[in-house]
């Protein structure tokens, strides 16, 4: 049993370093990569991340800005492509058909769904320190008993 646990632990930690060329086809995922992943591992983010209005972290030098097309990512030879639940599905399908590992990251519309999104990111990217902290903070928030909802304003 201990050997199985140790093997699982080794494989999980290897996942974080397994991907050396990560690409994103989603603006929100771009921001996660730019904030949480070592710059030298980021092969590409969407062109929207070059806009100061959207970007929340510096763009690494030499990162390719994609427009969500499989053809442009193919020549970058990523070993992992992260895609949102709804956007760039044609490119994601084409990349999968060509043997590129593509992982769908679900959208989050609630705190519980955000926890699922962080789980999916952890599954894709491994144990990243910032991801671990964010996930722990969210779990603590979700563990608190809910206060009864009270309306402080009513707009008709």
Report on this structure.
The protein is an alpha/beta fold and 156 residues long. Helix content is 46%, strand content 13%. It contains six helices and five strands. The longest helix has 17 residues, at 2-18. Mean pLDDT is 82; it is low at 1-16.
Brief description of this entry?
By secondary structure, the chain is of the alpha/beta class.
Strand and helix map with partners:
Elements: H1 2-18, E1 22-24, H2 27-36, E2 42-46, E3 64-66, H3 70-74, E4 80-84, H4 89-97, E5 102-105, H5 111-125, H6 129-143
Parallel strand pairs: 1-2, 1-4, 2-3, 4-5
Helix pairs in contact: 5-6
Counting DSSP E segments of at least 2 residues, the number of strands comes to 5
Task: Give the rounded overall mean pLDDT.
Answer: 82
Give the helices and strands as they follow along the chain.
HEHEEHEHEHH
Strand order of the largest sheet: 3-2-1-4-5
Characteristic terms for this protein:
13% strand; alpha/beta; 5 strands; 156 residues; globular
